[in-house]
Design a protein that fits this description.
heterodimer; A: alpha/beta; Rossmann fold; 6-stranded mixed β-sheet; 18 helices; 14 strands; 14% strand; globular; B: alpha/beta; 5-stranded parallel β-sheet; 39% helix
């Protein structure tokens, strides 16, 4: 970048309506209006107040739920402080991941190097907490002062007899996606380092579920009912020893493909482990995922398809009547979705249809061109698709499209609430399980609880409709 | 306590400018438990003393022993004793946030300002999320979003481009630029870039741009806050204007509810206040018909420019008053105004509790020449009445207080007044002279000086607290883990409060704030007694 002036991009049909910065226009599209050509996966525009985070964030969210590992952030205090126990990633045993460890680099460390402090920190923390492995996260500053993370980690690994793994997650070296890759590379160092004797031929690893509010337990429950052994949770309720032997599993199930697909690909290449892309959100995607797993194992265990069908039938029989009342209330209401990875958006669009709602705005921080093209095919015409949005753009479309509920994370919540729009937290901080069939009910109830609250009658933007009966404005 | 900078005969900055040499020499201030914090590089590494509080205290109430959380409650946090950590170099569960966060908050308190971080994108996003979770309000922080290339070749072009984009989308009157560890380490000359920017784009209607150096490897969010407030005054209040008689109030990092209360107090004295920064509206605004890029409210830029015309300056924060003179001029915003324009400077603590509020009131009486307005006199009277009514519930209870140094000093002062014995006061900041201030606000009212730790993380606080049999914790949400582990109440105060609703509406300051805090402390103790009781009285 040599100039500070913005190049002029001709306004195209898909972007003429919003007051977008020129360089942002290629990242907004209206479904059905011309070919979709998103200029995504590029660096966030300076000054645009992106909702994105950094490489470190990507690595931290993926590895965080490994509960018996030490997660040491090598850097100044902020990176560790802002990621202390922020996700609702539950553990059924150890909870070392819920502590926030930092080398808390000071000025003298920046000047003289932080390697000694890092070694001392690892030494004392490993002795104290006896973790099964340690992940050492590199931050912006470590990439600049040139600490040899690899050398320190190797030395500590020898000294302590546990894997001490550097995570190359310098914040400025890309966006979250690079962080996912760094996390996958770090985990891949563990894979294949433990025996796989007791692994069943009917076995899977669950990749890309982080056990928020216990979601991975729901999924594991289904798989176990189908007769499938889960070798490793990657990474929700994750354990180092499970990851070490996860190459023994017959199949990798990859959800949230952005975050762990790289690991699946590495395992495919080295161990030949096949993978399936799955989603546990919503009715069809949950059922389709289980059926796909059943089909995969049908040749090994012909009865599995029948068992799966029974499982889905039982679950749906319990779920559908409970959704009916919710659907009646919500039919015709409008939803906006803004999530980290675009893959989740597919499931959410379908889930909203089940409760009678239309998705009018959908976006993500880190979607790819292919994902957005695929996304357009499942959207209703006119739905706004947006990449790497910011608060002003989101608020613009929420207003223009007259949204009733916004699905996003904490950063999007005040945008919705300020405008008098309902909100459903579908991000890492959620405390209510939204995966699986029971998760679908929870999701519906969450949306219902927000949309049907009487409070919208009193917010300025909607107060004028207060005399109109609920639902009549749809 | 009042640190009257004008009179300059008390604890003025110069006396402490040589910092804590420690090695025992700060014994006057540190008394029993200076612990290993003291000040930066004090070299004093011995483990904190258990302090005299481990003996049964003299009020006849046996201290409640620490209990593990009942296993039925999920039990995870309390299931194993927490191992001790002698002389650790690492930090576990920090009791501080990073420097630029404080600057971003301070800039948010200026009307029409956009806080801008010069660094990688993640910093801005993390801070936004952290701040939003407390205030539940939009908190836009722009970023120069440096990537690998800019980290190598310098962040100037991104900084300029970022400001241009912010101008297009926000039309701000002020851009508050803070650096990060990334841009400080690559040596970006932000001042130089901004001069270039003003030259290159001088034909545009440029906003004011204030910048501040906030490397996160140096200090905490409070240093960032103070540096930003100082930068606002230093870079904007340059000219002497006609006296307008307003009171310049530099309130420190307090809640929107606190800021409203302070404004009312000054107004009730018949004077106008320029409060800098003023987060009350930007971070606690009404529901809107239409989303506004910039929130309403905050300190008007014109008021900052005209600070030289104020009748006097009141600067809140004991630790601030003890900040040594820096190499680049006056160390605090208040001293800038004092030294540049000769404004009388009243350095007081955060006005939390009876005596600290009295000190603020005394300053306002001196500035306005008027007595305490009736409304506040009555609030004071009711608080004293409540002290008497409530004292038995909390007398001799043992508290652990943590957070920003100035908040801790205020809270300890209040707790001491209501009869609660602070046994441990801790802050993540170093060099805040916390022990001296704690000694001053507890003098003559506590049987023993509390243990005081600077540069603490939560694990160190917990290690120390476990030998002190506390009955309650007072501080932000981040101590909840320990309250749960020990099955004692946490009275929430300060920032962040991420696990309760309305944390930003908590009132801490003034007589009304003292009352509100006392009610919450007393009720926390009563609630604990009630829930632990096999009888279940409903008449307490």
């Amino acid at each position: 970048m040599t100039t500070a002036t913005a190049p002029n991009v001709t306004a195209t049909a898909e972007c003429r309506d919003a007051d977008l910065l020129d360089e942002r226009k290629k990242q907004v599209h209206r479904a059905g209006q011309g070919p979709i050509d998103m200029a995504c996966n590029r660096e966030s525009l300076a000054g645009a107040v992106s909702q994105r985070a950094c490489v470190f964030c990507g690595s931290r969210v993926v590895l965080y739920p490994i509960a018996d590992a030490l997660h040491l952030v090598h850097g100044p205090i902020g990176c560790a402080a802002y990621t202390w126990d922020i996700r609702g990633a539950l553990s059924s045993g150890p909870e070392l991941h819920r502590l926030s460890f930092s080398t808390d680099l000071q000025e003298k460390d920046v000047i003289f190097g932080g390697e000694k402090k890092l070694a001392a920190a690892l030494d004392e923390l490993i002795d104290l907490h006896q973790p099964k492995a340690a992940f050492v996260y590199s931050t912006c500053i470590v990439g600049l002062i040139g600490d040899d993370l690899g050398a320190v980690c190797r030395k500590m690994s020898e000294k302590k007899g546990i894997p001490v793994i550097p995570v190359q997650s310098e914040g400025f070296k890309g966006n979250k996606r690079e962080g996912y890759l760094a996390a996958c590379k770090a985990m891949f160092q563990l894979v294949g380092t433990a025996p796989t004797d007791d692994v069943s031929p009917l076995s899977v690893n669950i990749l890309g579920d982080f056990n928020l509010a216990g979601e991975i337990w729901i999924v594991r429950g289904y798989l176990e009912r189908m007769g499938i052994q889960v070798v490793a949770n990657i990474t929700g309720d994750g354990r180092v020893d499970d990851i070490r032997r996860c190459h023994g599993a017959a199949l990798n199930l990859v959800q949230c493909s952005g975050s762990t697909m790289d690991l699946a690909k590495m395992m495919k290449e080295k161990y030949g482990t096949p993978h399936l892309r799955v989603s546990y959100l919503g009715i069809e995607d949950m059922a389709d995922s289980l059926y796909a797993v059943a089909e995969h194992f049908e040749s090994v265990d012909p009865g599995i398809v029948e068992r799966t069908r029974d499982l889905v039938r039982d679950e749906l029989a319990a779920l559908m009547p409970r959704l009916r009342d919710i659907r009646r209330d919500l039919t015709g209401k409008r939803a906006a979705i803004y999530v980290g990875g675009s893959f989740k958006a597919f499931s959410l669009i379908k889930a909203f249809r089940h409760i009678g709602m239309n998705v009018v705005l959908v976006g993500s921080q880190t979607g790819t061109q292919e994902e957005y093209q695929e996304l357009e095919t499942v959207c209703d015409p006119g739905t706004v698709i947006i990449d790497d949005a910011n608060p002003l753009e989101l608020s613009h479309y929420v207003r223009e499209l007259d949204v009733d509920v916004f699905v996003g994370g904490v950063k999007e919540r005040p945008i919705a609430h300020k405008l008098g729009v309902g909100f459903c937290d579908h991000n890492h901080e959620r405390k209510i399980a939204l995966a699986g069939f029971e998760g679908m009910y929870n999701f519906a109830r969450e949306v219902h609880a927000s949309v049907m609250s009487p409070v919208w009658r009193f917010v300025p933007r909607r107060a004028r409709r207060a005399t109109v009966p609920a639902g009549a404005d749809a | 306590m009042t640190l009257d900078y004008v009179a300059n005969d008390g604890l003025c900055a110069d006396e402490y400018s040589d910092s804590c040499g420690c090695g025992g020499s700060c014994a006057d201030g540190c008394a029993d438990g200076c612990a290993d914090g003291c000040a930066d590089g004090c070299g004093c590494t011995e483990a904190p003393g258990a302090g005299p509080e481990t003996a049964p205290d003299d009020c006849g109430l046996a201290p409640v022993s620490l209990k593990a959380a009942p296993s039925t409650s999920g039990g995870k946090p309390g299931k194993a004793p927490r191992p001790k950590r002698p002389d650790f170099v690492s930090t576990t569960n920090a009791c501080k946030l990073c420097t630029p966060l404080g600057a971003m908050l301070a800039f948010r308190g200026v009307e029409g300002a956009v806080p801008f971080l010069h660094g990688s994108q993640g910093c801005a996003t993390y801070m936004r999320r952290y701040v939003i979770s407390h205030y539940r309000e939009p908190m836009d922080i722009a970023s120069s979003s440096l990537g690998e290339k800019q980290a190598v070749y310098g962040g100037g072009p991104n900084l300029k481009k970022g400001i241009l984009n912010v101008m297009k989308k926000y039309d701000p009157v002020l851009v508050g630029v803070a650096t990060t560890c990334l841009t400080e380490t690559i040596g970006d000359d932000v001042g130089g870039y901004l001069r270039e920017f003003r030259n290159e784009f001088g034909d545009l209607d440029l906003p004011d741009i204030v910048h501040v150096h906030t490397p996160s490897y140096n200090g905490t969010h409070m240093e960032g806050w103070n540096a930003a407030v100082r930068a606002l005054v230093d870079q904007l209040a340059k000219d002497k204007v006609e006296p307008h008689g307003k009171v310049a109030l530099l309130p420190g990092f307090v809640s929107p509810a606190d800021l409203r209360h302070l404004r009312d107090l000054v107004t009730d004295f018949g004077s106008d206040a320029v409060i800098l920064p003023d987060l009350s509206d930007p971070l606690d605004g009404p529901a809107l018909e239409d989303y506004t890029p910039l929130p309403e409210g905050g300190t008007p830029l014109a008021d900052i420019r005209a600070l030289s015309g104020a009748a006097a300056v009141i600067e809140c924060g004991c630790s601030l008053a003890m900040t040594p003179v820096g190499s680049t001029g006056p160390a605090t915003a208040g001293r800038v105004l004092h030294e540049r324009f000769g404004l009388p400077l009243h350095a007081v603590g955060l006005p939390i509790g009876l005596r600290e509020t009295d000190a603020l009131v005394a300053a306002l009486e001196a500035i306005t020449g008027k007595p305490l307005p009736r409304r506040h006199e009555l609030e004071r009277g009711r608080f004293v009445d409540a002290l008497v009514d409530g004292h038995k519930y909390v007398s001799g209870k043992r508290a652990v207080v943590y957070g920003e140094a100035d908040l801790v000093i205020g809270l300890v002062s209040l707790l001491t007044e209501i009869g609660v014995h602070t046994v441990l006061a801790a802050t993540g900041t170093r060099g805040a002279h916390l022990a001296e201030s704690i000694a001053a606000v507890t003098e003559g009212l506590l049987p023993a000086m509390p243990t005081v730790i600077e540069g603490a993380d939560f694990e160190e606080i917990a290690d120390t607290a476990e030998g002190l049999s506390p009955d309650l914790l007072v501080g932000n949400s981040k101590g909840y883990r320990y309250a749960r582990q020990w099955n004692i109440p946490l009275v929430r105060a300060g920032f962040p409060i991420h696990d309760r609703f309305g944390g930003h509406r908590l009132l801490h300051v003034g007589y009304a704030g003292a009352q509100a805090l006392m009610d919450r402390v007393v009720n926390a103790v009563i609630e604990k007694t009630q829930s632990d009781s096999p009888v279940g009285y409903c008449y307490l």
